[in-house]
Amino acid sequence: MISYIYNMIAQTQKNIVFIGLGRFGIKRLNSLKNIPNVKILGFYDPNPNISTDLNRFDTIQEIIECTDATHVIISTPNNTHWSYIKRFSDSKLKVICEKPIVASRSELEELKQATFSNFIMCSNLSYFSTSIFLKNFISLYRNEVESLKLSIGVHQDLTSNDWRFDRELSGGGVLIDNGTHLMYLLDEITPNFTITKAQIKESANIDIEALLQAKNDHISISLFATWEKNLDDYVFTEIKTKNNFYKLFANKDLVQKFDLTGKLIKEIRLESKNTSLLIESHNVLTKSWSQKMHKEKAIRVMEYVFQAYELH
Fold first, then answer.
1. What are the extents of the domains in the chain?
2. Helix 276-286 to helix 23-32 angle, to the nearest 10 degrees?
3. What is the pLDDT of residue 34?
4. 131: exposed, middle or buried (C-beta count within 10 Å: 0-12, 13-18, 19+)?
5. For the chain, what is the largest distance between any 2 Cα atoms, rounded to a whole number of angstroms?
6. What average pLDDT does this structure show over 244-249?
């Protein structure tokens, strides 16, 4: 695995500044800081209480004016992503932001009209072993696939003071957060799908469950996102073909194949992708920056999210 990761690193130096150094920012930081050709120049965070040995940038303008910086990674609450991205619209920096890239329909309209495109929206779900299996499977056997079910929960039970239960910070709730993960992955598997139905369960003015129905060609699609711990797996997938059905368990890196009577035929153990965030980071840093393509994908995925809200 280490040699695989090292081979993905471009020879050119990547000098990165983090915006946001909370729980997820620290995870992303730790996935990069000891890798060759990647240097962490420092961070910016409006929270004055963050304690770290890293260099602290006092303002966004200071980052923009830093001649050594090449990339910015935004790891802040969902409702701040677009405002930070816009700050770098005229800079030479490449901006990397985990989904969702916008948190409202009005921000999505701004994104569509934006004349800059030096940013990319990411989803580390695409690098899970089961997600890679799923993408390859659909590519090979698309004509045989009848239905697809994708579900995502959380790794552990959440407390009421978790940021996910703050409507403003999360951008609205589970659909715009975890749901965007699913739509990002689905867009890679079978783009230009149509959402036909949306059922959203709310609690304390925030959506905590979202069940969506979609369709593309002959494939019937179900997407389920929840803030509860998923009993099957954090990310659980079912594929039904004309002759078999498959269950994919992300946490276990496991695929099970059944016949249509429910008899288990085969188990496939996948190479662990517990380093999915690490692999995602490196792929994003080293891939060709077709900026127009990345912007179009971000618009397409976020359009699905707001279409679902509007169908509810």
1. 2-122+278-293, 126-273
2. 70
3. 65
4. buried
5. 63
6. 96
CA neighbor of 84 nearest in space, from 46, 42, 41: 46
Q: Domain 126-273: state its class.
A: alpha beta
Element (H, E) at 237: strand 235-241
Helices 178-189, 129-141: inter-axial angle, 10-degree rounding: 30
Task: Give the Cβ contact number of residue 291 at 10 Å.
Answer: 14
CB 47 within 8 A of CB 68: no
Say what angle helices 178-189 and 291-311 make with each other, to 10 degrees: 120
Using the Cα atoms of residue 177, residue 183, residue 186 and residue 187 in order, give the sign of their dihedral: negative
Per-residue pLDDT of 51-68, as tens digits, reads: 888 999 999 999 999 999
Tokens representing 25? Answer: 């920012």
Instruction: Establish whether the linkage from the previous residue to 46 is cis, with ω within 30° of 0.
Output: no
What pLDDT shows up at residue 277? Answer: 56
154-191 pLDDT, tens digit per residue, is: 866 666 677 777 777 777 889 999 999 999 999 999 88
pTM over 0.70: yes
Token pair, residue 63, equals 């980052």
According to DSSP, residue 57 is labeled -
The sheet carrying 206-216 orders its strands as 194-203, 206-216, 219-229, 145-154, 235-241, 244-249, 254-259, 264-269
CATH 3.30.420.40 fits 2-122+278-293, yes or no: no
